[in-house]
TrEMBL record, chain A:
Signal peptide start and end residues: none
Regions of compositional bias (Basic residues) in chain numbering: 261-273
Bias kind Acidic residues: ranges: 333-344
Top-rank taxon: Eukaryota
Name of the protein: HPS4 biogenesis of lysosomal organelles complex 3 subunit 2
Organism of provenance: Gasterosteus aculeatus aculeatus (three-spined stickleback)
InterPro entries attached to this UniProt entry: CCZ1/INTU/HSP4_longin_1 (IPR043987), CCZ1/INTU/HSP4_longin_3 (IPR043989), HPS4 (IPR026091)
Biased composition (Polar residues): 274-285
Single Gene Ontology BP annotation: melanosome assembly
Ranges for region Disordered: 256-396
From TrEMBL, chain B:
Region (Disordered): 246-297
Record field: transmembrane: none
Chain ranges of the FUZ/MON1/HPS1 third Longin domain: 522-675
GO cellular component, one term: BLOC-3 complex
GO BP annotations, alphabetical order: melanosome assembly; vesicle-mediated transport
Gene Ontology molecular-function annotations: guanyl-nucleotide exchange factor activity
Positions in coiled-coil regions: none
Family matches, as InterPro entries: FUZ/MON1/HPS1_longin_1, FUZ/MON1/HPS1_longin_2, FUZ/MON1/HPS1_longin_3, HPS1
Domain FUZ/MON1/HPS1 first Longin: 2-158
Pfam families, sorted: Fuz_longin_1 (PF19036), Fuz_longin_2 (PF19037), Fuz_longin_3 (PF19038)
Source organism per UniProt: Gasterosteus aculeatus aculeatus
Residue ranges of domain FUZ/MON1/HPS1 second Longin in the record: 204-365
Sequence ranges of Acidic residues compositional bias: 249-259
Record's protein name: HPS1 biogenesis of lysosomal organelles complex 3 subunit 1
Length: 567, 682
């Protein structure tokens, strides 16, 4: 089942290397001494030396001239994202068609992943054998490249379960498991994953992506009882590993651990872990941001939370309530109820980007829109801050935490916990036992869900990227290539770069002889749309009857049934 | 913080240009170790030391990986763009955010184009170009570099401030009656008189034009001249601007004084047709005997011999304004395209801001055509041989090598044995013939490649000697006599005396947005370009001078100007990737860009697939590398037998205007601005 995850189909990365210049200081030092890791590993050593030596040398020279590290280096056939820190030189090369911003994002992700699991890079190389660390780079790189379709070269996004085939209540159940775990004060936050895909998460997309690496690793290795991170007492189902978080990423989900908490996002943890999740939560449970809505309470009391009966949930005419502006991954009951069959991944999150507002009154749409645009600039800046430049943040202190993993077959509960959690047997057992039954139940349900046919194809192509949650909704087939899709992917790539470079750009229509593509973005999302067929044959002279200019209207209309509301 | 550098493969700096900030930056980094950082050589040393590792690395990458650096970007947004032409590496740097990667790449191509205009076919031999760009004599080097640097600076200024250099098309002054009068004057009076004068020293005026700042008032080409390419014309305008820069703040009279005398109002405007008349083909065959089809026989022409004798007499140009500039321009004749043919350029200032430019064909230009023919033959042969073709396969499909053999024999004979260069050419040629034609010799095989290369170098050297060399001994320089030049100058001055103030204002406010507001509410700005003729119109957007544009002077006007400049760059980016229609909603504005093709009768042709180019491809424009000419050629393949025209329209609208209305506006503008009668809408 997991094979699709590890498929090294189209590689977006052509080269990746880490070069340690401190090893090559003297006259007689060989360049190869400085090569910490080189991908593709089968590259002849002299070619490795050539690339590392030349790129690092030229990079250093340019950096000295400009008194600033090089961040992008282009060759005619490849473009490289570069990070320089102390004597380390990272380079990640991609084909020139991949947007530069995407290459840089990929390299940052890769370095941040390494730091997440190993802490400071310099210290790791002092403590470990280079071969060990090389295999980790390889592992992280292969994880980041796994299952990437053409669009994944452009948008780095979370793989989520196909919510269109899943009873929304299952998503709610997953969210409740996480909430219940949080009642233990040592548990910070977590996520529920199924077969390498996110079911529910409380942590930022960046962190979730990192957590998923360990999950897929433990899955492929299989539970091994002699693994130092596994706990025999839990039948090998539970494992843990030390991870390192920057203060800023920690602050995002630990309201009390940081002095500068921007929002109060989490339910206050007043009560102790008093009941297990297999009991239905009652209406009096946590009065928190997300749960204060009366509809939610009623919903919980009205029906069996874990009922897999979709008709029941769909039929309930719950009154509309505005969502909390930004609930950071907490479930929004409205969203789950409202989402029609073809809905997308966003359904299990609510960030007020319009997904859950289908069919709602206009005034409400308005309201939500204003909320989103109100947070406009902040959001854009926030995005940048979430993936801080590793070169600079390598100095920032990393805080060790523990990643706790509880696996039930394909289902994994991953929690970020205080390091002392592992030695606190009572807490551990409590969390384990309180969630075990629910996890089993959830796993059983998810397992029976057939992968199902992907959404309606329709005479059009679209891609909808949620920048806040890093999720991508599209009706493109996952296989790369596809001659029909290529013009769309090419246009999307160009437009995405343009959107990234021009903050004020809201929408664009571009047309070549073969394809007209419409792109639009708000602070929270980017949407791309191409209509098939129709006569594109025209002179290219301005003409308001030209089909290209009807794309915005068509996109608005067509994408509604995919849960994309372009307002 | 800007820099442009040309380096040889051995990391020798062949040319550099830096702005003061960059120079300071280098001196700060290097100066600490340098005891006396004064003077040019010290700075040149430090710049070459600083760049050497990059240059060497670049060459290593090409040698070993068959790939090369195209750019570097640093975290503080400094951009380095690299491009290699033959054995010369060009590096352009920006550290002040004013230029993007595409601007820097364009700048590199522009410098390359300028070297071609200044040095002609010498640029085809890296070895000779190296010597030409970096003369041994430091004084001579300083003078040449200064000239190139100031050309580059002028270009930079125009690109930043002049819409016609932004879109790389020529802007004409829209005043049809005056334009027509001037063209007639140039034709009937000026050129005719010059070409029939005995003081022209064998030169023949081919083109004459009047510039008002950067805008063209009148352009006339003599009947037997080939048309001047837009690319060349734009470079000539840069050169003229460089010689007589427009002082944007002081040379304009008060606009109000002149506005009353201006011909604004409901006149019947039209843009004058560029000369020459359509039957160019037939006229060109009627010129000097032997020109074109069989250039070799021309060397018996006494004119040529005289020119050969006078080669020695070319002297270092004194700061005498009557000394023409040698420029190398493309000439298209019935039998083909001859790039980089020698011309003399006379730039005669009429008043500050108004200049008369004369381009003459020099008497020895036929030598250049022959050299080009031979160069082409050897280059083709070399290419085929290096592709592995041998024997007759290598010589197929061109003028047979035997024909070249006969012509080259005659050419060398005509050059005369006294010349050192021709002696060396002859030596190399004998060697080539021995290898290629001797029975039992290697014949046409790979072994001939080095000999081909040597022949090319020798041909370039002969060309250099004929057209570039400034020999020391002086007598009468080869040029239109100063008296003749003065007469030309005063004739045109007399003709334009009453118009001069009007012209200076008109050039600043050629067409104004006000005239469009009624018909196109919400339209803020537009640029329309006819790429087939290389001409553009746009409402003026000058902000640097005293009389402000209609947008006023404040930050808003500056903002819109910046938007227009960015828009042009952005649409080029999409065009490079094959998108000919682009619209954006950006902030409070709505931008449109359209490129389309028409036939001669104005019928709109179907949009075909446009080529998709790589990121580091030559810049889209007409100045340095004529993208549109290639585009037209590419497109015409599917429209055989039709004259294809290519147009572009850019518009800026207020974002509140409904998209449908905006598109209607665009359509109206597109059809009205370039109607078949070419009456610009006013």
């Amino acid at each position: 089942v997991m094979t699709e995850l590890m498929q090294p189909d189209s590689r977006r990365c052509t080269y990746f290397f880490l070069y340690d210049g401190s090893k090559v200081k003297g006259e007689g030092d060989l360049t190869r001494e400085g090569i910490c890791y080189f991908y593709p590993e089968e590259t002849p050593l002299d070619e490795q030396e050539l690339l590392c030596g030349q790129l690092a040398g030229a990079g250093r020279c340019v950096s000295e001239l400009s008194s600033s590290p090089v961040c992008v280096l282009r060759l005619r056939r490849n473009k490289f994202a570069i990070r320089m820190k102390d004597d380390f030189f990272w380079a990640l090369g991609c084909p020139v068609e991949v947007p530069t911003i995407s290459v840089c994002e990929l390299l940052d992700q890769l370095i941040n992943l390494f730091r997440f699991y190993n802490g400071s890079v310099r210290r790791s190389y002092q403590l470990n054998r280079p071969e060990t660390l090389a295999s980790r780079w390889a592992q992280y790189l292969s994880h980041l490249q796994s299952g990437s379709s053409d669009l994944h070269h452009i948008f780095s996004c979370l793989r989520t379960i196909d919510a269109t085939n899943i009873d929304p209540l299952l998503l709610l159940k997953a969210a409740l498991i996480l909430q219940a775990c949080q009642r233990c004060p040592l548990v910070s936050a977590g996520c529920v994953l199924f077969r390498g895909r996110v079911v529910s998460t409380q942590i930022s997309p960046e962190l979730t992506m990192k957590v998923m690496v360990h999950e897929s690793e433990t899955y492929t290795k299989g539970p091994r009882c002699n693994d130092p991170g596994t706990f025999n007492s839990f039948g090998g189902a539970v494992s843990s590993t030390t991870v390192f978080l920057t203060r800023s990423s920690l602050a995002k989900f630990l309201p009390f651990s940081s002095h500068s908490t921007p929002h109060k996002k989490k339910p206050t943890r007043k009560t102790r872990l008093s009941r297990t999740l297999s009991n239905t939560p009652s209406t009096e449970s946590e009065p928190s941001d997300a749960f204060s809505s009366p509809s939610f309470s009623r919903r919980l009391s009205d029906s069996s939370v874990f009922s897999p009966d979709p008709s029941q949930s769909g039929a309930d005419p719950t009154p509309q309530q505005p969502d909390p502006p930004f609930s950071n991954g907490e479930p929004s009951p409205e969203a789950e109820e409202e989402v029609p069959e073809e809905s997308n991944y966003e359904s299990f999150h609510s960030n007020g980007n319009g997904v859950s507002q289908i069919g709602a009154e206009e005034s409400r749409d308005h309201n939500v829109f204003e909320e989103v645009s109100g947070g406009g600039c902040g959001n854009v800046q926030g995005r940048g801050a979430e993936s801080p430049d590793p070169a600079r943040s390598d100095d920032s202190p990393l805080i060790p935490m523990t990643l706790y993993l509880h696996r039930v077959k394909g289902l994994v509960l991953a929690l970020l916990v205080e390091p002392c959690f592992l030695s606190d047997t009572d807490s551990m057992e409590e969390v384990y036992h309180s969630s075990l039954a629910s996890l089993n139940g959830l796993e059983a349900h998810l397992r029976t869900v057939s992968p199902g046919a992907s959404g309606p194809q329709g005479p059009y192509l679209f891609a909808h990227f949620d920048c806040v949650q890093s999720t991508l909704t599209t009706n493109l087939s996952a296989r790369p290539g596809g001659a029909l899709q290529r013009p769309f992917v090419r246009a999307t790539s160009l437009l995405h770069s343009h959107f990234c470079n021009t903050e004020t750009l809201q929408e664009a229509i571009i047309r070549s002889a073969g394809a007209a593509v419409y792109g639009t973005r708000s602070v929270a999302q980017e949407t791309y749309f191409q209509q098939h067929g129709g006569s594109l044959r025209n002179s290219g002279i301005p003409n308001h009857q030209d089909s290209a200019f009807s794309l915005p209207g068509k996109a608005r209309h067509r994408l509604l049934k995919h849960g994309v509301n372009l307002i | 913080m800007k820099c442009l550098l040309i380096a040889s493969e051995s990391a020798e700096v062949l040319f550099h240009w830096t702005d003061p900030e960059f120079q300071q930056n280098v001196q700060k980094q290097y100066g600490a170790s340098q005891e006396d950082g004064q003077g040019l050589p010290a700075f040149e040393d430090s710049i070459s030391t600083l760049f050497a590792p990059i240059i060497i690395s670049c060459i290593t990458m090409v040698d070993r990986l068959r790939d090369s650096y195209t750019s570097f970007t640093t975290e503080n947004h400094h951009i380095y763009v690299l491009h290699q032409f033959d054995e010369c590496l060009y590096i352009a740097v920006n550290g002040d955010g004013e230029e993007g990667e595409c601007d820097l790449r364009r700048k590199i191509y522009v410098v390359k184009k300028m070297t071609e205009v200044l040095f002609g076919m010498v640029t085809l031999s890296s070895n000779l170009l190296r010597k030409e760009l970096r003369p041994q004599d430091t004084e001579q080097r300083a003078r040449l570099w200064k000239h190139l640097q100031s050309l580059l600076q002028t270009y930079g200024h125009l690109r930043e401030n002049d819409q016609s250099f932004l879109v790389e098309a020529v802007e004409r002054l829209i005043h049809p009656t005056l334009c027509e009068q001037c063209i007639e004057f140039l034709e009937r009076r000026l050129v005719q008189q010059l070409n029939s004068s005995g003081e022209r020293a064998g030169e023949e005026v081919m083109h004459a034009f009047i510039l008002v700042h950067t805008k063209l008032l009148a352009f006339y080409s003599s009947r037997n001249a080939s048309s001047l390419s837009t690319s060349d014309l734009l470079v000539l305008i840069i050169m003229a601007q460089n010689m007589y820069p427009s002082n944007t703040d002081s040379d304009d009279p008060n606009p109000e004084d002149v506005e009353s005398t201006s011909g604004s109002g409901p006149e019947s405007f039209y843009t004058p047709e560029p000369s020459p008349p359509p039957d160019r083909g037939s006229s060109s065959s009627g010129e000097k005997p032997g020109r074109g089809s069989t250039p070799v026989f021309e060397f018996v022409d006494p004119d040529v011999q005289m020119a050969e004798d006078s080669l020695q007499t070319l002297e270092v140009p004194p700061p005498d304004p009557s000394t023409p500039r040698r420029v190398f321009l493309e000439v298209s004749l019935k039998d083909g395209l001859y790039p980089m043919m020698p011309h003399s350029m006379y730039c005669l200032p009429l008043w500050p801001g108004i200049t008369l430019v004369l381009l003459t064909k020099i008497p020895t230009s036929a030598v250049a055509m022959s050299v080009y023919t031979f160069l082409e033959a050897f280059a083709k042969l070399e290419k085929r041989l290096s592709e592995g073709q041998e024997g007759s396969a290598a010589t197929r499909g061109q003028r047979t090598i035997h024909e070249v053999r006969g012509k080259l024999d005659k050419f060398i004979k005509a050059l005369g044995p006294t010349e050192i260069q021709s002696g060396q050419l002859q030596k190399e040629w004998i060697e080539f013939k021995n290898l290629a034609f001797t029975r039992g010799g290697p014949g046409f095989s790979r072994h001939l490649i080095p000999s081909c290369k040597k022949m090319k170098t020798q041909l370039c050297a002969v060309y250099r000697q004929c057209f570039l060399l400034e020999s020391g001994s002086s007598s009468i320089p080869q040029r239109l006599s100063p008296g003749l030049q003065e007469r030309a100058q005063s004739m045109v001055q007399e003709k334009l005396m009453d118009w001069k103030d009007f012209l200076l204002v008109k050039s600043r406010r050629n067409i104004t947005m006000v005239s469009y507001l009624e018909d196109f509410p919400g339209l803020i700005h537009f640029i329309c370009v006819d790429r087939s003729t290389g001409q553009m119109i746009a409402p003026s957007l000058n902000l640097t001078e005293r009389n402000t544009s209609e947008l006023g002077k404040g930050p808003l006007a500056q903002f819109i100007r910046r938007k227009v400049w960015t828009l042009v760059n952005t649409t080029r980016r999409y065009l490079q990737k094959g998108y000919s229609t682009v619209t954006f909603r950006d902030g409070d504005f709505y931008f449109c860009y359209f490129l389309w093709f028409e036939n001669e009768t104005g019928f709109k042709l179907e949009a075909g697939d446009l080529p998709v180019l790589s990121d580091d491809s030559a810049p889209i424009g007409m100045l340095a590398w004529d993208y549109y000419r290639k585009l037209l050629r590419y497109y015409s393949k599917s429209h055989q037998g039709e004259v294809v025209k290519c147009y572009e329209l850019l518009t800026v609208h207020l974002g509140v205007v409904p998209a449908e209305i905006i598109l209607q506006h665009c359509r109206q503008l597109a059809s009205k601005l370039w109607e078949p009668s070419r009456n610009p809408l006013l």
